[in-house]
């Protein structure tokens, strides 16, 4: 199982994983896990697995509707985040006021969290405060790894189903069902890599959510917490910017 595989990998790399913290501290410190928003009437639209081809169009759709999104980026999943045509997309999302966060380096190894944070900090200047583990899977070792890097874990309480075979219409039906329940808040899971999500589901969901009276905000805003550990000027690409 993936859970056991992740745990085994983390145990095997324990020395490197917690090099920045004392043994006592690492045992005591666990990252907080959030699965729902805490600020009423807020919805966080989140997008996993990018940066991908549809990123700028998703940003434009959000912008056109006065909405904010959160992008959980990988470092080297579909493409290398340092590629010359990918870096500007990441910066575009950040510069337009959307939250950028970690989805680990290659969507499978929780021990590589620091490399993903480093890439985002280099490209945008912002050092993220949030991570979403691949598939939402975590245990106490994952929480320790996140905590040593100053990260909180953000999962979700609503899945559009776009990565598990749902058609765009089925994803829209899923949104309708949740909105009709009218919960106080919704923390969504969508995937940036799905064209149906980018061009069909997202515009529909935004209109339905706004009509229901929700404010569409970032994960940090829906939780009343900071999006980044620090913010500085972005870096200048050099030979070390590589996957």
From TrEMBL:
Which cofactor(s) does the record list?
Co(2+)
Q: What is a GO molecular function of this protein?
A: hydrolase activity, acting on carbon-nitrogen (but not peptide) bonds
Domain of life, per UniProt, equals: Eukaryota
Pinpoint the NodB homology domain residues.
Answer: 41-217
Q: Which cellular component appears as one GO term in the record? A: side of membrane
Is Cell membrane one of the keywords? yes
One Pfam annotation, family name?
Polysacc_deac_1
**Protein localization:** Cell membrane
Single Gene Ontology BP annotation: carbohydrate metabolic process
Which InterPro entries does UniProt cross-reference here? Glyco_hydro/deAcase_b/a-brl (IPR011330), NODB_dom (IPR002509)
Hey, what's the signal peptide range on this chain?
Answer: 1-21
**Which keywords, in A-to-Z order, does the entry hold?**
Carbohydrate metabolism, Cell membrane, Cell wall biogenesis/degradation, Glycoprotein, GPI-anchor, Hydrolase, Lipoprotein, Membrane, Metal-binding, Signal
Main localisation: membrane
PROSITE patterns xref list: NODB
Q: How does it sit in the membrane?
A: Lipid-anchor; GPI-anchor
Q: What is this protein called?
A: NodB homology domain-containing protein
Q: Which source organism?
A: Candolleomyces aberdarensis
């Amino acid at each position: 199982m993936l859970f056991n595989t992740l745990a085994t990998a983390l145990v095997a790399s324990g020395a490197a994983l917690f090099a920045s913290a004392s043994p006592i501290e690492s045992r005591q410190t666990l990252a907080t896990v959030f699965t729902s928003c805490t600020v009423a009437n807020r919805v966080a639209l989140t997008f996993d697995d990018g940066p991908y081809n549809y990123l700028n169009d998703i940003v434009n759709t959000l912008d056109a509707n006065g909405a904010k999104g959160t992008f959980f980026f990988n470092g080297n999943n579909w493409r290398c985040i340092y590629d010359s045509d990918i870096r500007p997309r990441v910066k575009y999302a950040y510069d337009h006021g959307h939250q950028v966060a970690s989805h680990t380096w290659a969507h499978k190894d929780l021990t590589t969290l620091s490399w993903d944070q480093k890439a985002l900090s280099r490209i945008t200047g912002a050092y993220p405060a949030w991570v979403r583990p691949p598939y939402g899977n975590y245990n106490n070792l994952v929480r320790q790894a996140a905590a040593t890097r100053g990260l909180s874990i953000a999962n979700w309480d609503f899945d559009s189903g776009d990565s598990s075979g749902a058609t765009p219409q089925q994803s829209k039906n899923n949104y309708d069902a949740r909105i009709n329940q009218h919960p106080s808040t919704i923390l969504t899971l969508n995937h940036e890599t799905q064209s149906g999500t980018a061009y069909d589901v997202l515009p529909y969901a935004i209109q339905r959510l706004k009509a229901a009276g929700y404010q569409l905000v970032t994960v940090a805003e829906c939780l009343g917490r900071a999006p980044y550990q620090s913010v500085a000027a972005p870096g200048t690409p050099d030979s070390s910017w590589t996957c």
